[in-house]
Every structure is written in structure tokens, then in C-alpha cells.
Amino acid sequence: MTPSQLLKFYIALVCLSLTVATGFLLAGVKIILIFTAIELTAVTVGFLIYCRHALDYEEIEISGTRLLVRKFIAYKESVTEFNTRWVRLSHPEEHQKVFFVEQTGQRVEVGQFLRREQFKNLIAELKPYLG
């Protein structure tokens, strides 16, 4: 879901919840306000946690002898530069969800957004560019 789609869904959910609460309130059930407040607080917290990571990505860029690994996770961007002649790729173990791009003194975890079957394709795609 994109952030705008999520916002529309959230607004619809809040309106529905408030409509139901208003119906019960008009029927004389005043305690519904407490439960509605708890429900909307929980939903809001859940959506805020989701939104924090909705735009996360990893990007690998190769230009000549330069390999850039750019990661944007939880509104924090990190860019690590490697030399393609000296960089190594570590193959993921069976239990690992990521693999590493390594060079002397530098190591970056890559692949947290890939499925297991996509690791081999990405590594095979990168190998020809690495020395």
C-alpha cells in the first residue's frame, strides 16, 4: 500500500468506527467511548509503525569501478561505496535472510527485501561487474 492509499483506508476506518460508536452512544451506551478511543489508538499506532517502513528500500548502483549500496530504512539513509575490483559477495547461508557486500574494513548487509529464490539471481547479476 502506498502512503496515500493507507491514509484513505485509515480515514475510512476511523469514520466507520466513529459512526458505530455514535450509534451506540445514541442508544445510551456511554462506555463505548472508552472502547472506541482504545481501538482508534491501537489502530493509529499500528499504522504509524507500518508507515515508518513503507518506503524502505535497498539499491545497488555500479558505475565503472564504483559500486554504491544505498539503503533507506526507517527514514535513515546510508550510502556505502566500494571498489568493484576488491569487493566480495558472501553467499547467504540457508538460515540467513541477507547476504553481505564486503571489502577491507567495510561490510554491508543487502537483500532484506528479497525472497530466498531471488538471492542467487542478484548475485549472478552482480558477479560480471566485480573484479
From TrEMBL:
Q: Which UniProt keywords apply?
A: Membrane, Transmembrane, Transmembrane helix
**Keyword Membrane carried by entry:** yes
Q: Which Pfam family is one of those matched by this entry?
A: DUF2244
InterPro entries named in the record: DUF2244_TM
Membrane-spanning residues:
7-25, 31-51
Its recorded name reads: Integral membrane protein
Organism listed in the record: Polynucleobacter duraquae
